Amino acid sequence: MPDSRAWGRLRRGAVCVALALALPLPALAQPIGLPSMGSAADAELPPSLEQLLGDAIMEQGRRDPTYISDPDLDQYLTGMGRKLMAGAPEGGTHRITVFGVRDPQINAFTLPGGYIGINSGLVVSAANESELASVLAHEIGHVVQRHIARGMTQQSQNTAVVIASLVGALLAGLAGSGDLAMGVATFGQAAAIDRELGFSRQAEQEADRAGFEMLRKAGYDPRGMVQMFAMLMNSSSLNEGKGGGAYTSTHPLSIQRMSDIQNRVAELPPVHHQDDPQFWYLRAKLRVLQAVSRQDRQDALLQLQQETGQGSAVQRSAAWYGIAYGYWESGDYPRAATALAKSAEDPSVVPETAVLAARLANSEGHADEALRIARAAWQRWPHSQGVALMLVEVLQQARRDDEALKFLEPCIKQWPALAHLYRLRAQSQERLGRKVDARRSMAKYYVLTGSLSTAVEQLRQARDLTTDFYTQSELDAQIRDLRQRLDSERQLLRRFKKSD
């Protein structure tokens, strides 16, 4: 069983080699190095391979129980990331994807391919939105300066061996034989490799400075970076990464780095940033989600109860929302309804409350009320992925699959890369007897989540279910394209395996 805090122990880049442990290192006959890639200045992971590694890691990571599959959180974090990227060097040309991890430790990490993980503990510990944005900006700084790619190819021979094993594991996965072998358990084994890809203090300071500029240009309060540094250094007993702080153990802080940011802040006029209300509601939800034991849950609810009498009207409403979410998740619907009603006493300006209200009505068997709430929410928040997915789920539970499919089509046009939409479409198509369409939708879902071999299998099943010549021809073309893509990925990976 994987460690429930596995993702939290993975520092930037280290998680990428965690998958390699699916193939034991002692099995290698001799160390396998990386190929020569030209001059030292060019000795970094090619972007194409870095993206491939990141996609493969995330395919496995989405199976980890600590991975948070929450559309509201995904949309919020990715929106914050894109806002910061707009002020990044080179015009923010790198692709980033930000996701949440259920772990109370204060931590964040960056993977190959622009994937950035944010621990729930980091969001919960942030005193304002600018503090959270400062950490994300720092991580984006590592992405845009390609510190991960350089670190993976300029480290020790041990790292080269690990990367070679990773390549072998990914090749097995592309062949269709490694998916189970490279399962989520590998994430819990990454601690032994965690030390191999550490960044230098110079790289950390470079990420600080790039992050600071992104923070400033995006309109966040740059003091948030100073405040977050102070909190992190205090949590690690001001011991420059040798204390107990999870983030400082992988992102070594120093008085020099702190002073550098303080001096930059002192040169700027005061910034009065207004926090997005959604920050407070998601913060309250994550306080509940990261609670694993019964005692943790009780402590979370107690903390939220204290927050109902503090801060602004939005903060108080968010605290009541968090309490309602906790009671709903534990099946105590009457208490959830009471807390949600108190949350509504203060102005509700986020979609999370409506999503919870619809789910609560569904849980209590009030399907019509759930549908009414869901439709009203969509009218109010037509750009919320969480509301869209909730409305589809309510329609499906009411067995209104035709309506669900009609609603899904414009949603897919609005968010063509949102994988969950295709999975929901497949469910309705299957129930309506459209088995070929259902498998084609699932193939799209697997393509978007990085499981190409599974997507090919779905398309093969679809082909076997039809006798229509034109449909078979279309499916043959899709299967051929995916096989070519798999072959290209295999060739790319084989470049990193030294010939015997």
From TrEMBL:
InterPro entries: Mito/Outer_Membr_Metalloprot (IPR051156), Peptidase_M48 (IPR001915), TPR-like_helical_dom_sf (IPR011990). It comes from the Bacteria. Keywords: Coiled coil, Hydrolase, Metal-binding, Metalloprotease, Protease, Signal, Zinc. Residues 1-29 form the signal peptide. The keyword Metal-binding applies. This is M48 family metalloprotease. Its cofactor is Zn(2+). It is an enzyme of class 3 (hydrolase). PANTHER family: METALLOENDOPEPTIDASE OMA1 (PTHR22726), METALLOENDOPEPTIDASE OMA1, MITOCHONDRIAL (PTHR22726:SF1). GO terms for molecular function: metallopeptidase activity. Residues 472-499 form a coiled coil. Its EC number is 3.4.24.-. The keyword Hydrolase applies. Residues 76-264 form the Peptidase M48 domain.
